[in-house]
C-alpha cells in the first residue's frame, strides 16, 4: 500500500510528522540571524543529549563523515592505535585508520560477541612507552546488535593515560546511557538518521579538551572535515560551509521532542523495545545473535535456522505487511535479519511487527513455535514494564 511503509531498520529511522513538516519549509540564508538562532538552540540541545560540555560539532555528511573526522583531526601518520572489531562498523574504523596510514592493531571478537575489555587492558598495560595514541571502537555494533562494554574499556584507556578514546556512538546516542563527560570520552561520532529521528545528512562529533590538544599536532590531510573551522564558526553560531538548512529545522524539532521526553525516559523506552523484541523472538525459538549480556538498544539481529530463509522473511514482511527489516552485512548477508527499534518507535510498532513476523514465518512453513507465542511473550513484557 502507498505510504504505509514502516521502517524497522537501524537507520534511516522513522521521522515524526512534525519534523517532516519542518523539512518542507523554505530554506533560509545560513548567514542570517534566524539561522544563527536555530544553530544556537540546536547546539545547546545536542550538548544536553550528549551529556557533555565539550564542543559538539555538526558536519554535513553521514555518520561515516563523523568517524573520518574523528580520526584525521587528532592523529599523526604512523600513530599506533588499537581498533575494536566485532562487526561491520568496527571494521570500518580499521579501514579508515589504515587509509590514513595509521599503525593499526586490531582487537577482534566474533561477529555477534562483544569485545573483551581484558584484551584492551592487556595491550594498554603492556605499553610502558605510551606509544598507543588512541583506542577506537564502536559502542553499539549495528551490524550484529551487540553493545560493547565501553565503560570498562574506557576505564583501561584512562589508566593508560596517554591514549585518546574515539567512539562510534551512531546507534547508541539517543538510545543508551552514554555520559560523555562523566566517562571522559574524547571523540564521539554519530549521525542524524539514527537516534536523532531526522533523515540522513548530518554527522555529529563531540571533542574533549584533550582531543583538541592532540589536534594541534595532528598531521593527517584534511580540508572539508577539518574540525578547527567548525569549532571557530560554532562560537558565532555559524558554519564554515553551507549547511543543509532544512535538516536543521527538523533537528530543532526532534531535539525539542527529546527534551520533553527526558533522557531517562528515552533510554528506558529503548530498553523496553529491546526487551519486548528479544522476549518475542525467544518465544518463537528464533536464535538471537547478541547474547543477553550485551544487547544493543537500537537493533536486534536474528539468525533463523537453515529451514527459514532470512531473505525470504524480509521479502514477505516487506511485500505483505509494508514492514522493512534489515538484512545481514558482509559474511552474515542472507544469514540474519535485523529488527531496528531505534528513535521514533513505540510499543505499537513492535507489537505490530511481531504479529506480522509470526504470520510471515508461518506462511514460510516455520513450525518452531506455537502460533502467537511471540506476541504473547511481547505482550507480557509490554504490560509488565
Ligand atoms: C549507521 C552507522 C554508521 C554510519 O553509517 P553512514 O551510512 O555513514 O551514516 C556508523 N556506525 C554505526 C554503528 C552505524 O550504525
How does the SSE layout of this entry go?
Elements: E1 6-8, H1 17-23, H2 33-50, E2 55-60, H3 63-72, E3 80-85, H4 88-99, E4 103-108, H5 117-126, E5 132-138, E6 140-141, E7 146-147, H6 150-160, E8 164-168, H7 180-183, E9 187-191, E10 202-207, H8 209-217, H9 227-234, H10 245-261, H11 263-283, E11 299-302, H12 310-321, E12 323-327, E13 337-340, H13 347-363, H14 373-384
Helix pairs in contact: 1-10, 2-10, 5-6, 11-13, 11-14, 12-13, 13-14
The structure holds pyridoxal-5'-phosphate.
Pyridoxal-5'-phosphate binds at residues 10-11, 62-64, 89, 138, 142, 168, 170-171, 191, 194.
How would you concisely characterize the structure shown here?
By secondary structure, the protein is α/β, with parallel strands linked by helices.
The CATH H-level homologous superfamily of the largest domain? Type I PLP-dependent aspartate aminotransferase-like (Major domain)
Poorly predicted ranges:
none
Fraction of residues in H or I helices: 40-55%
Largest sheet: 7 strands, mixed
The shape is globular
Strand content: 15-25%
What would you say this structure looks like, in words?
It is built from 14 helices and 13 strands. The strands form three sheets. A seven-stranded mixed sheet has the order 2-10-9-8-5-3-4, sandwiched between helices. By secondary structure, it is an alpha/beta fold. It has two domains: 6-12 and 262-384, Aspartate Aminotransferase, domain 1 (Alpha-Beta Complex), CATH 3.90.1150; 17-260, Type I PLP-dependent aspartate aminotransferase-like (Major domain) (Aspartate Aminotransferase, domain 2), CATH 3.40.640. The structure holds pyridoxal-5'-phosphate.
Amino acid at each position: 500500500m502507498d505510504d504505509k511503509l514502516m521502517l524497522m531498520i537501524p537507520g534511516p529511522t522513522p521521522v515524526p510528522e512534525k519534523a517532516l513538516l519542518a523539512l518542507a519549509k523554505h530554506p533560509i540564508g545560513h548567514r542570517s540571524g534566524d539561522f544563527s538562532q536555530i544553530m544556537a538552540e540546536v547546539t545547546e540541545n545536542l550538548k544536553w543529549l550528549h551529556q557533555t560540555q565539550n564542543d559538539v560539532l555538526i558536519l554535513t555528511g553521514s555518520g561515516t563523515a563523523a568517524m573520518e573526522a574523528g580520526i584525521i583531526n587528532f592523529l599523526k601518520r604512523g600513530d599506533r592505535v588499537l581498533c575494536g572489531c566485532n562487526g561491520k562498523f568496527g571494521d570500518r574504523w580499521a579501514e579508515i585508520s589504515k587509509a590514513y596510514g595509521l599503525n593499526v592493531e586490531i582487537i577482534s571478537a566474533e561477529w555477534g560477541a562483544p569485545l573483551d575489555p581484558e584484551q584492551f587492558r592487556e595491550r594498554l598495560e603492556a605499553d610502558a612507552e605510551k606509544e598507543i595514541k588512541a583506542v577506537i571502537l564502536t559502542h553499539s555494533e549495528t551490524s550484529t546488535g551487540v553493545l560493547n562494554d565501553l565503560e570498562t574499556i574506557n576505564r583501561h584507556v584512562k589508566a593508560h593515560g596517554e591514549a585518546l578514546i574515539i567512539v562510534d556512538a551512531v546507534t547508541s546516542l539517543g538510545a543508551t546511557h552514554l555520559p560523555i563527560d562523566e566517562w571522559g570520552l574524547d571523540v564521539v561520532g554519530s549521525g542524524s538518521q539514527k537516534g536523532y529521528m531526522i533523515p540522513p545528512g548530518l554527522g555529529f562529533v563531540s571533542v574533549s579538551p584533550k582531543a583538541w590538544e592532540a589536534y594541534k599536532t595532528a598531521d593527517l590531510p584534511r580540508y572539508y572535515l577539518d574540525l578547527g573551522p567548525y569549532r571557530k564558526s560554532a562560537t558565532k553560531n555559524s558554519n564554515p560551509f553551507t549547511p543543509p538548512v532544512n535538516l536543521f529545522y527538523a533537528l530543532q524539532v526532534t531535539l525539542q521532542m527529546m527534551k520533553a521526553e527526558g533522557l531517562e525516559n528515552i533510554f528506558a523506552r529503548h530498553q523496553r523495545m529491546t526487551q519486548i523484541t528479544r522476549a518475542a523472538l525467544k518465544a518463537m525459538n528464533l536464535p538471537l545473535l547478541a547474547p543477553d549480556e550485551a544487547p544493543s538498544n537500537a537493533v536486534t539481529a536474528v539468525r533463523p535456522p537453515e529451514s527459514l530463509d532470512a531473505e525470504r522473511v524480509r521479502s514477505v514482511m516487506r511485500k505483505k505487511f509494508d514492514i522493512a527489516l534489515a538484512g545481514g552485512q558482509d559474511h552474515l548477508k542472507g544469514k540474519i535479519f535485523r529488527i531496528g527499534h531505534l528513535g521514533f518507535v513505540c510499543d505499537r510498532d513492535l507489537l505490530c511487527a511481531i504479529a506480522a513476523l509470526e504470520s510471515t514465518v508461518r506462511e514460510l512453513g516455520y513450525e518452531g513455535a506455537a502460533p502467537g507465542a511471540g506476541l504473547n511473550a511481547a505482550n507480557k513484557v509490554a504490560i509488565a514494564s
